[in-house]
Design a protein that fits this description.
two-stranded antiparallel sheet, single chain, four-stranded parallel β-sheet, globular, 6 strands
Length: 209
Amino acid sequence: MPSVTSLIHPAYFGNIALWSVIVKAEKLMIERCDNYQKQTYRNRLYIAHSNGKLGLNIPVKHSKDGQRQKTATVTIENNFHWQRDHWRSLEAGYRSSPFFEFYEDELEPFFQEKKETLFDNNIKSMELIAELLGIPLEYTYTEQYDVEITESIKDYRHLIRSKKVPEIATPHYHQVHEVEHGYLNNLSVLDLLFNLGPESISYLEKLEL
């Protein structure tokens, strides 16, 4: 049987469901020809924090003439100290987790290096997570935007939406703030790494979407 290609949007340290797709994909294709949309995982992630579920957003520059932008060309507003703030939030949320110190030396430089475009930022975050998981990451890019796709491609682009998408149940694993806030579903893959460490890859391989 011919192999199936999994089609995804690149997300900012994407959630657990997205990473389950990436880990199990026979072939991976990344959408780069779509129009940018607000309120998606393109520029946000969710983590566990002492106050509960916390969203971290990347500020982006919007088109001055009101025209829609391609996701691949959207630039980041680096006049704000968003990277510093995101890293501080991760430190505050996960310093007491089992594996934060195991990964922090490899993660912290990501939050110090300025990236010009959101697309490049998200691709680099994907490459970093793959490295931390110890898996190869090979992918191709789309050459045009297609609403309908062929049978040889499985479309997971809906996973980029943070709203108006069916909630995906991710099986329970122990989370550092679970006693105070209960189990928080389908957070950023960073939450999985900080809590499960090297066992994260096995968890992602077993997850059924």
